[in-house]
Design goal:
The protein has helices at residues 5-10, 43-54, 62-70, 83-105, 124-127, 154-163, 291-295, and strands at residues 12-13, 16-17, 137-139, 142-144, 180-185, 194-195, 200-204, 210-220, 235-237, 254-259, 271-273, 279-289, 304-305. By secondary structure, the chain is α+β, with helices and mostly antiparallel strands. It has a domain at 109-305: Domain of unknown function DUF1214, C-terminal domain (Jelly Rolls), CATH 2.60.120. Strands 5, 6, 8, 9 and 12 form a five-stranded antiparallel β-sheet that branches. The chain has a four-stranded mixed β-sheet with strand order 11-10-7-13, with no helix packed on it. Helix 4 packs across helix 6 (154-163). The chain starts with a helix and ends with a strand.
């Protein structure tokens, strides 16, 4: 039996009154500190158990629920490991955290690096957004897809989701003028980790290949979240908000500095503040990237230690 438009609008039907949905609630989050990093101690498993108990039994794939069930996390059952099991889980978590951090910050697979001998890397070109088949090549002759590999690249998937919250196919396309592209750098030109107490610089050649905008953002090695400094916005780029836009030199190149204090003679828009007590890494973003990025005719400089 159907419901007419008039009945729907008045909330009355031949079967009774329609219960309207609850009103939407907007929660103001501006200025609030929110921790989105999973814990690195035993409470991680307690958090997983809370999620499993709260959600429907089929909320996660059975393949994912299997390992949880193996350690005692089962929908509708108490999670109460004894002292022996709790020690095993705690040690396993520490090892998993260290392994994931190493895969993310110190990858050893040479195919993950975008340029030969460079620190700039992005493994999505080799694995695609599903961590299985490389991104198709897009050439003037047409699209050239790669054959499926038939297996999931687990190291790349672990590394990516340890350091990045989510993924979309738009992050893994070779289409000029569409989507966005990212290059990560975890070490300097000498393959040394970045020290927040030191000064570094990177130079981008002229004609940065983006149709919309480009930017650098700095992240804390430990939390993988944006670096928290008095500067507030740990970024520099072509946009003039929330910090001033970076300015190019007379030859068209743009140099960005990373240091705890603003270097003499360097404009605010060309400087990102670091924390002397923390290590960091950076992501360079190109929104609506252009063909010279994909052909590698344009290449960013390596991040060099100044002092």
């Amino acid at each position: 039996m159907g419901t007419s438009i008039a009945e729907f609008l008045t909330g009355k039907t031949r079967l009774g009154r329609i219960t309207p949905p609850p009103p939407l609630t907007f929660h103001e989050g501006s200025g609030k500190v929110v921790n989105t990093i999973p814990p690195n101690d035993f409470s991680y498993f307690e958090m997983l158990n809370a999620v499993v108990q709260r959600e429907p039994a089929a909320a996660l794939d059975a393949e994912l629920m299997g390992p949880l069930a193996a350690i005692g996390i089962v929908k509708g059952k108490p999670f109460a490991p004894d002292a022996r099991m709790k020690k095993i889980l705690t040690e396993a978590l520490a090892l998993a955290n260290a392994t994931s951090r190493s895969l993310f910050i110190n990858p050893r697979d040479p195919s993950w690096y975008y340029y030969p001998g460079s620190a700039w890397m992005n493994f999505l070109f080799e694995t695609g957004s599903e961590f299985e088949t490389p991104i198709p090549m897009v050439t003037r002759e047409g699209v050239k897809p790669f054959p499926p590999t038939g297996y999931r690249t687990l190291d790349a998937r672990t590394a990516f989701f340890y350091g990045v919250t989510g993924i979309t196919p738009a992050m893994a396309m070779r289409l000029p003028g569409v989507g966005s592209q990212y290059l990560f750098a975890f070490v300097d030109a000498d393959k040394q980790y970045f020290d927040g107490a030191k000064t570094y610089k990177v130079t981008l050649p002229k004609d940065i290949p983006e149709a919309k905008f480009w930017s650098f953002t700095l992240y804390d090695n430990m939390t993988r979240s944006m670096l928290d400094t008095p500067q507030r916005y740990p970024r520099a780029g072509s946009q003039a908000y929330p910090s001033p836009a970076a300015e190019a030199s007379a030859d068209g190149s743009t140099t960005i500095y990373f240091s705890p204090k603003q270097p003499d003679g360097v404009k605010r828009g060309n400087w990102i503040q670091t924390d002397p007590m923390k290590g960091w890494f950076t992501i360079m973003r190109l929104y609506s990237p252009l063909e010279p990025f994909f052909t590698k005719a344009w290449r960013p400089g390596e991040i060099e230690l100044v002092k």
